[in-house]
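Researcher: Next sequence.
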Amino acid sequence: MGKIKLAVKTPRIDMTPMVDLFFLLLIFFILTATFRPQESVQVDTPSSTSQTPIPSDKQFITITISKDDKVYFNVDNGSDSSQHIRGKVLQAIGSQYQIRFTPQEIKKFEGMASFGLPVVKLKDWLNARDQKARDAIEDGVPVDSTDNQLMMWIRFARTYNNDLQVAIKGDGGSNYPVVKKVIDVLQNNNVNKFNLTTNLEKVDVTLDNL
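Model: Next structure:
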């Protein structure tokens, strides 16, 4: 009796569910992602041989010192954006200097990056028509002893989020006296441990260098 041969069928995989899942994930990430705001100033950080990266899971106060010795301040919103850390800090600073910010200005401030200007100019900075107009306003956060606004920003930021760590990001061409002023402000706020942001430069050590 002859053997019955079954017809060989080529296997077929239906990719439709996978394509649907891909587009659902893509739409989800587009709707929930937050774009990183543009920094107010670009700095050329000095080189370093240290290989210790700043932890990405930490929350930071970032103090930037530009080449022309202007001081800029930035604070993270916190691990839970619903806490509105930046908005609370802005309102506390406004109360200190008797400036009232609108809900629209507070919301806009929460989505922006570093800034470098006196508190009295913050409203003009927030309502500027574009980034170029904001840059023209910025002349640095005051760090003088008569009106040390950097100290106030740090103090209020740590009031609403005590877990904040501090990073100083200075340009390689900035002058030491300004850097020292910033460090003095940190120490006056009992911040004795902070990070210095640098460019990693690999150095090969040979016997001739020893």
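Model: The beta strands are 47-48, 60-65, 71-75, 165-170, 195-196, 199-200. Residues 16-32 form the longest helix (17 residues).
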